[in-house]
Protein: MICOS complex subunit
Amino acid sequence: MGKRSFYTDDDEISSTPGLTSAISPELESKQVIQIDDNTKFVKGKLIKTFPQLEQFSNQWRKWLISKTEVATAEYDNLKSAMNNEVSTVTNKTSELVTEPILPSTIYILTAALTGSILTNRRNIAVRFLAPTLFGIASFKYFMPHSFSNVGNWLYQLEGEYVPEVQKFQDDTTKSTNDLIAASKQFQKETNDSLVNGVKETRQNIMDWVSKK
Structure:
């Protein structure tokens, strides 16, 4: 190639060191020449290999692929489970809540806040119970159908998970209803007895006056 002239075009100068011309057909025909266990001569190029590094890289690649597949499967399972839970909650909410959410929810929250304000100087039990009771009462007043649906649903859950509590509640409710019915019956009988007594007394007085 000779010395480079200062005025020579750069296109004629190769910036890559070493041989730039194509290898000979005879050399190219020799596809692979095994020099030793870690060195090969391929198409005129010296290729050195490192079996330990290749083995480590292969094992690491397989381990990474395996862990990636496991992580992907777990993510898909969690995503599917989350979608199912969200769908279940959405469907159950639509089933329980039949009235419009607004403005009933605002009224319920306002009632609960009112209960909290009215009892802000009371003890902690009263401060906790008052907003809860105000909220439940306003929930029943402003959303009666939803309140009934939620009550029935909670009753079913109670029978499914804590049947003893449900039985105690049923017995208490029955006893309370029986007591109320007995009280009403006693009141009715007392009232009837009083009315009959007044009537008989008046009749006796009229009979006594008529005899005079």
